[in-house]
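ENCODED BACKBONE
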Amino acid sequence: MQWEVEALELAELRRLVLAAVAPYVDRDVLARQIAREEEQRRALAAFLDGWDAAGGGAPS
């Protein structure tokens, strides 16, 4: 089957791509990676909060 990608609605294109990729995704690895990224976001936010509190804001 062949489609013109430009003619597909975004939601349909997303559905097709996710359906094609889903069988190859290791859900355990994905969950660990998402958790790791969330921890990195929290660490970065904490660093930035400390930076601002220490007067390390962006130069004017």
